[in-house]
Amino acid sequence: xxxxxxxxxxxxxxxxxxxxxxxxxxxxxxxxxxxxxxxxxxxxxxxxxxxxxxxxxxxxxxxxxxxxxxxxxxxxxxxxxxxxxxxxxxxxxxxxxxxxxxxxxxxxxxxxxxxxxxxxxxxxxxxxxxxxxxxxxxxxxxxxxxxxxxxxxxxxxxxxxxxxxxxxxxxxxxxxxxxxxxxxxxxxxxxxxxxxxxxxxxxxxxxxxxxxxxxxxxxxxxxxxxxxxxxxxxxxxxxxxxxxxxxxxxxxxxxxxx
Length: 258
Description:
The chain has helices at residues 20-58, 64-95, 107-124, 143-160, 206-212, 218-228; strands at residues 2-6, 9-13, 103-105, 128-133, 139-141, 166-174, 177-184, 232-237, 243-250. By secondary structure, the chain is α+β, with helices and mostly antiparallel strands. It has 2 domains: 20-95, Signal transduction histidine kinase, dimerisation/phosphotransfer (DHp) domain (Helix Hairpins), CATH 1.10.287; 103-250, 2-Layer Sandwich (Heat Shock Protein 90). It is globular and about 90 Å long.
C-alpha cells in the first residue's frame, strides 16, 4: 500500500496478487520430491548392501574388471543415496518438520568426536585435521544435528582445499557465545559466488564437484540446521587465500528449565 497526493488530497494505491497457483506448484513440487526420495531410498539401500556384500565376501576372487565395475557401482550408489538423504533433510528443514532433540552439551567433546570420525577421510585425501579447541561453556543444541553440520563444513574443507595439507577446526568462547571455526588455506571461493553460498544446489565448480561427489545441498542444510538450533553461520574469506566458516551459538543459560 502506498500513499500519494493529488490536488492536495491523499490517495492510496495498492495491489493484490493471487498466489494460489504458486502455492499449489510449491506443494506439488515438495510432494514429488518427498515421494521420489522415499521410493528410491529403500531399493537403493538394498542394492548398495548387496554390492557391498559381494565385494566384501568374494572381492578377492572376482576378475579385476568385474571388481572394478562393482566398486564404481558402489561409489555411485553411495553418492545417489547421499543426494536422496540430503533432499529429504532439506524438505524437512524448510517445512519445519525436522525433529530436534536439544541437550546442554560440551562442545569440546562433540568436536573432538567429529574430528576422530573424519580422520580416515582426511588420510585418504592426504590432509591433516588440526584442532585448536579450548575449554568453553556448554551450549544447548541437538548433538546429532550439530555433528552433521560440522561434518558438512569439515568434509567440504578437506575436499576443496586444493594442495594445502591442513584443515583447522577451532573452538573459542567469545562475548557470551561459543564459536566453532573451520578454515583452510585452499584456493578460496570467488567473490561473485559469495551470495549463493547457502543456496540449494549452488556449486562453484561443477567439474570439481563431480570429482569430489558434492550434491550442492551441504551448505544449505548446514545453514538451516544451525539457525534452527538458535545459532548463526558466517563465511569469511581468508587472506591471502582460503575459506573460513564460523558457527556461533549462545552459551547455555544455567537457569533455563529443560
